[in-house]
Amino acid sequence: MGIRWLSGVLILCQTFASFVVFPVESKASENVSITKSHQLVKATNGQYTISYDLQTGIGDIAFSGSTMVTHFHSDFKAVGRDQRYASTDNAKRKATWKKIEQDKYGSNGQLLTISNELDEGPTIIQNFYLYPDNSYLMTDIDVQSENPLAVEIMEPISASRLDIGEGSDKRIYTTPYSNNFDFGVAPVNNFGNSQNETDRVYGAAEPWGPFNGISHWVTSVFDQGNNRGIVAGAATTKNWKSSQKLIQAPAPNAPLDGFSLYNWGGSQSGKDIISDKFFLGYFNDYRTGLETFAQVYEKGEPRLKWEGNVPVGYNTWYSHYYDYLTADAMYPLVDYVAEHLKQTGYQYFNLDAGWEKADGDWTADPKKWPVRVPGEDPMKSFANYIHSKGLKAGIYFNPFSVQESYLDNLIPNTTYKFRDTVLKDASGSLIKTYIGTYALDPTHPGTQTYIRDTIQRYVDWGYDYVKIDFLDVGMQEGAHYDASQNGMQAYRTSLGIIRDTILAAGRPIFIDESIAPLLPGGFAHGRRSGCDTTIGIQNYSGFERQSFNTQASWFSNGTIYSYNDPDMIMPENFANGFWYKYSQADGKLLATTVAMGGGSWLAGDNVPFLTEERYGILRNSGLLDLVKKGKAAKPVKMSNFYHLEEHAPSVTFLDDGEGTRYVGLNNWNDAPAEISFSFNDLGLQEGKNYTVEDVFDGTRLGTFKDKLTKHFDGKDSTILKISSESGVTPTTLSKNLALGQTVTVSTYGDTYGSAVVDGNLHTSWSPNTLNNQWIEINFATDTPLNQVVIKELRKNTTFGIANYSLQYWDGSAYVNLTKGYTVGDLKTIDFPDITTSKLRLSILSANRLPAIGEIEAYHNNTTNTERLRINQDNSTAPFSQYSDIRSNVQRMQVFDIMKSDIPKMDIYLYESYVNQVPKDNLYIDIVQLNDQYIPVKTLFSASLPPYNIPGNLTPYSIYPRLSNLDTNTHYAFILRSPNSVNDGSTNNKYGFGYNDSDPYSKGFERLSTDGGLTWVTESGGKRDLMFNIYQ
């Protein structure tokens, strides 16, 4: 930005021999007192004292008698002038004050005004707002000139030193420009690194390098040991962007070598230019200070209140995006959410990006969203369908971008082409965005009509939730159509159009901001806390990055916004393909982040394909009860996350307002760890007994007082509920029946198989070859079992096991309980009660040599209804593979059912990737057949985008969860991919396993080459696709 921090005035600071000690408690007086003695003006409210020297134009700000802001002055930068005008320039100065009877910030206050009439330049007027009962002060400046003046930076406070007093571990806390970037914490003498940027443009490098000390919107300097610190930031953002500049301290725990509060971003012209208001306060707990900051900001800009429930639902982005967000995929998914998640509190089904024609045309892409109801817009039909299922409908908009191919298209209801409305740079060139589109100018009437009409269309279609994305583009600086507006003013204008159009709908519609700055508030109900959960930075995974950003912004929940948005809950993560799926522990860490994040719970996974233990997170009543409280957790202690790349804080907590605390505990390390916290840190009474319950599994840990320590495996997490409930008996945990039992293995490498039953994750068993390996646990006697837990160890972020089966010995042979693809670090397999003397885990194929840390076996007394086992299996026969699922080519497998339900199936699939992925989803339908084996009714349909199916044939699990079926009727599953190209090749297609020797006597395979209109039976009815059915 080319901002200079000093105005050319040399300020000599007095040296210090020891740190200032600030009192812990200080009470405000009943009144604000202002005095002037000679040329020294003093204003105090009993806590804060502003001392201003009218001779020099320099002041100090003290808290309880100890100076915290030393030798500050005010200044501004005029466009075209390198040197700033400053209050320290030669000037005539005077001080006046008047009483503030009552305003939104308080009563019986005083407005102190310092006027600096420069000898060679305009007049700089600085205002200070002090109230007797407020734990903070506010300031702004006003530049007045006889002739019009263009101003680009306004700096009410530019100080030579910032001191927070006594402390042994002083740190800075910084806020990013938008949630494309990150909150961070660092020691005062080592600011570390950052990718701290502002307006992003196409092709610009965003290097990771030394942090420049600029925080946006709000900052804090605090001591980690005693929590005391200063909080400073924007009290309003009506006209400017608002930032803070911190200058690194010369030594550990020393005062900062400089500090400023300033407005920037474009320019404003006129004879009277006013800055926004700034907030400054010293607090015994800086976290209280950040909460106070947010509350004060809301006084100046009331949040957009949401009177409805916390948004709980489903969003499509991480499961189906762009080309794969089709009507064919979405209608069945609505059915699934309504049937299986609505009963637990899910209300929303939200479309994300991909349904539209393009950025610039937010109408349905007819190739993906054809007309369903004659004469009705496809998107209105979809909203109506969602409503018919008892759910609310959500939709997506990127308001400030247009694709290059649309630049010469007319904007409907205007005479403008998009090219006319694109933001220009100083040379008149169109500004291209960092996402490759062009930035629309929010001040242009064509842009405003386009935004208003799009939102109105959503309203008319009946949508109940609107996600608006890439909002940082709307704050971009440039040569606006309305030259009187800078980036912030233009941004506010356009957000006001969106908000006001939605508020005029006459019904509740939730507005959620994504890729947006923390401020301004008042235009949306919710805001994303961090970047996309799948995008990491440096050594951080995307979900740990989401965690520290969510924890760092807790204070905006219920203040600046009704609810924070911690992005989506994905227990497995289907977004980037099977190589990048989360382990069970990863999913649990993310679940803790989202549940504690502040009142938004949107499932982002491809739900019909979620394994049982991961699906259980989405339906977990304890987590959902917590989410619906709409509270956000704050860290007990900040780590030096982001700037110094330390792990996210390990302990967070929230108060539900009813006397109960929820504590999130995260072990981000690969190694096991003990995590402790004090009840006093949670605001609980010392010496009192509290009941502690694990929210994830409902386990009652017992009664504790004062402190709790809990052991965690590597990369592990949980949430504890702490209440004053008495007389609660701790949960009796089931015994691990595998512990210490005899183990036999197919092969072994460096360690023996007994390592999996020694109760120690530091030891493990690995075979010495990849495929067709097994490990067997012998219980010696018949033993009742209904659960097995497998803990595979991760190496270099990946796991080894690909295809596996879990088997039990029935007295004469091994019987398959379950099959699947990938195990992970906490694979929990529940099945109906069996009695057996032996269990076997068979590793059918592996990506690398797997390492099994533990195998545990239990017989639980539980009401879990999803206890599944194979009851039909034709995959024990040898099979071949073929890949021709494309265009009009469909394959069907006929089957009968032995029970009246189909909770789960394994279908043997693969993706024959050579040089590109298939052009469409793989659709899996389960249909009911007539006596001629023709489909007459679709009972279930689900879709998998490319990347999610391995290149090797795999028993891929799907969870139809169908019930109350007729066991006397024929059924089938159908594989299809209608928009995948039929180029005559089997490359880059979806494939299947098959056998032509009639391995399944109750059914057979059929082929359609006309998109399912007609079907033929192949190989004389002896061909079968390979599959398993569970009961």
CATH architecture of the domain at 33-300: Distorted Sandwich
Would you give the CATH topology of the domain at 33-300? Beta-galactosidase, Chain A, domain 5
Q: Major sheet: size, sense and barrel closure?
A: 19 strands, antiparallel
What structural class is derived from the secondary structure elements?
mainly beta
Q: List how many beta strands DSSP finds.
A: 60
Please tell me the overall pLDDT: 95
Distance between the termini: 64 Å
- Report strand %: 35-45%
Number of helices: 10
Radius of gyration: 32 Å
Structure description:
Helix 7 packs parallel to helix 8 (584-595). Helices cover 11% and strands 36% of the residues. The strands form ten sheets. The protein has a 19-stranded antiparallel sheet that branches. An eight-stranded parallel sheet has the order 32-31-30-29-26-23-22-33, with helices on one face. The model is unreliable at 1-21 and 23-28 (pLDDT under 50). The protein is globular, with a radius of gyration of 32 Å. Among the domains are: 33-300, alpha-galactosidase from lactobacil brevis (Beta-galactosidase, Chain A, domain 5, Distorted Sandwich), CATH 2.70.98; 651-721, Golgi alpha-mannosidase II (Immunoglobulin-like), CATH 2.60.40; 742-867, Sandwich (Jelly Rolls), CATH 2.60.120.260; 873-1030, Jelly Rolls. A hairpin with a 2-residue loop joins strand 4 and strand 5 (66-78). It is mostly beta strands and 1031 residues long.
Characteristics of this structure?
60 strands; Immunoglobulin-like; 1031 residues; globular; Jelly Rolls; single chain; 10 helices; disordered N terminus; eight-stranded parallel β-sheet; mainly beta; Beta-galactosidase, Chain A, domain 5
